[in-house]
Amino acid sequence: QVQLVESGGGLVQAGGSLRLSCAASGSILGFNAMGWYRQAPGKQRELVADITRDGTTNYADSVKGRFTISRDNGKNVVYLQMNSLKPEDTAVYYCNVVERFTARLYWGQGTQVTVSS
User: Fold this and answer.
1) What is the pLDDT of residue 111?
2) pLDDT bucket at 2, cuts 50 / 70 / 90
3) How much is the CA Rg of the chain, to the nearest whole Å?
4) Mean of all residue pLDDT scores within the chain
């Protein structure tokens, strides 16, 4: 059973930085795409960034130039470095992974990020 453990959320002032981590375990197959989504109150969940196994990245326009996604394939960990945070980045951030060969999709439990103005 694949499990995702997220960490790194919290409260930060506008302009500050946070680094989210998501460690995936329970699969001997590894993972293709790994990514981060977020959901603000009253809004739909949206893609923040994702990264393929070979390191190709994709970002939402709203975070380009401020956020950086990376991963460690050996450890099955995906990171999201968030700089120049804005109040509108406030949301619950969810880790998302796609298992290799099965294409099964898994979600983390979510971590709260709050940016104060």
Assistant:
1) 97
2) very high
3) 14
4) 97
Question: What is the number of alpha carbons within 13 Å of residue 51 lying toward its C-beta?
Answer: 18
Averaged pLDDT for residues 80-93: 98
SS3 state of residue 5: strand
Residue 103 tokens read as 């294409």
What are the tokens at 73?
């394939």
Distance CA 94, CA 22 (A): 9
| Cβ neighbour number for residue 65 with a 10 Å cutoff | 9
Size of the chain, expressed as the number of residues it contains = 117
Phi/psi-derived region of residue 10, left when phi > 0, alpha when psi is between -120 and 50, beta in every other case: left
Q: Which runs of E-coded beta strand occur in 1-117? A: 3-7, 10-13, 18-25, 31-39, 46-51, 57-59, 67-72, 77-82, 91-99, 105-107, 111-116
Measure the CA–CA gap between 110 and 91, rounded to whole angstroms. Answer: 10
